[in-house]
Amino acid sequence: MISSTNFIYLALLPPLLAPIFIFIFKNNQNLRDSVGLIGSLISFYATINITNDLMNGGSPTLYLFNIFSDLSLSFKVTPLGAVFGLLCSGLWILAAIYSIGYMRGNNEKNQTRFYIFYSLSIFGALCVAWSSNLLVLFIFYEFLTFATYPLVVHKETDESIKASRLYLGILVGSSLMLFLPAIIWVWYSVGTLNFADGGILNNTFDPVYAPILLFLFVFGIGKAALMPLHWWLPAAMVAPTPVSALLHAVAVVKAGVFSILMVICYIFGPEFMNTSGSGKFLIWASTITLFLSSVIAIRKNDIKARLAYSTVSQLSYIILGGAIATNYSLIASVSNIMMHGVGKITLFFCAGAIYVSTKITKITDLNGIGHKMPLTFIAFSIGALSIIGIPPLGGSWSKFYLLLGAAQSELTIIIIILAISTLLNTYYLLDPVFRAFFMDKNESVKTVNHPLTVYPALCSAFLVILLFFYIDPLLQLVNLIIY
Amino acid sequence: MPVTSISLTVVILSLLGIPLTIGFISKVYLLKAVFSHGNWPILFIIVLTSFLALGYAWQMIENIWMKQSDDNTTLTIKDDPKIYIPLVVLAVFNIIFGIYAYPIVNSAFNASAAIFWKAL
Predict the structure, then answer these.
(1) Which of B14, B16, B31 best tests the A interface by mutation, with the highest count of A CBs <10 A?
(2) Could you read off the pLDDT of A453-479 as tens digits, one per residue?
(3) What is the DSSP string of A208-263?
């Protein structure tokens, strides 16, 4: 019987050590590309065991050593972290298969470098998920930014260098200027940074300053893409599609909203959030973001740009749930981390599959292509319908609970805006599907078959359906947060 | 020149105060000291400076690693392994003490305690 501490090692070591093997096997393509896949399988197996232990009442921890006299480099799996960990390591399996198909199908250069930093990014995301205090979270939050930088600049064209400058400037700039001072402020006034059930600010922090502190946190965590810090996400779309799929729809952006939820749940505590009234400005900031980004998404003709703005919008659904900070709204946030992650990776997989087979990047060029790539577009429709929130697909749960949470707090205007935003979602996500299936064919388009890019999309589409029926384990995990 | 480039990258990251380098540790202490003094203008300046540092230091990293297509000058690189030794040693220790900072911080504490004790 392996202890849960060793399972944490078993989950974290494959993505950390995989780069070494990738480098050793750099001249043997098949061997090199299978390293990531094997690592992801081991990592996922360990993550499932960790989650099981947590649900059976255990508390998986891993202590390494002290960084400061009162702060250690250690990991502790919280229910929230378990959800995020499962999402990252699970989807890494699909993404590992998909990247082989995509990188070979496109004949991309620098593939070894790509796989090395891809794996390191997953390591960063898992460490963020299981960090035991705010400082460890910050360390790996920054690690994740720098590990994804080479992936964003991958093509090394003027355009991608410019975009990656924006990427780094916003993410590192905001975290150094706002996030780090906020952490030090908490450390100075409370004396600890360890995550604790119910928060640590309760008795020691002056509620008058609480909204300012929360402001520093939510705008310091640029990865959550709250407007006006969302520019980096559309810019990051110059990266190859496997990066956009796993990192800029799942790992990186979810690390952002995850950090915000950790701050709300384990630093502020839901009770202090409501008694201090610090969430009020955040409710409006996230509502404005989710509405405006939906409006912008409609005007985008590039598939990946439209999906990026849709991600910005969905991230704000998650932040909104955290800002309301009631039982139902927190369930909505945590489940949307999972549901949006699986749904959006499906959409990006499809966008990449379309690009590899036809080189199409514009939505207006998709007319009639559904008959040539039926499987891809079926997967696309399932992912899109889930993000809109239509049952029986996973995404409907999170929308349902968010509306319940908003109703519980009597936020009528928010409910109306959510309804309008859903209408907009429906339009801009189903528009490509209608074009592909019901518009006249464009005979000049030639398609090349790349099965390795299509099947991962189908798998994640299947997962979207599965998650609607197997919501129970997820709800059990969330109940551990709220208790 | 991969060894030089990697070492330089590590040192630049340290200069920026990025986690997992020694620069981060000292930055944390600096910020903590500012908070305990409540000197807000200083905090603002520190925060602004770190953003400016990102701007000028990153330019170097981009120039080292990105291929310049319009640059036709051929550099002749004289390779002398001896010169790598201090570079690599410094870069490696920068990271080691950036992660396992406790011993260094502890001795720094003792040193400062000794100084202040003498001054009294």
Answers:
(1) B31
(2) 888 888 889 988 888 888 888 888 888
(3) GGHHHHHHHHHHH-GGG--TTSTTHHHHGGGS-HHHHHHIIIIIHHHHHHHHHHHI
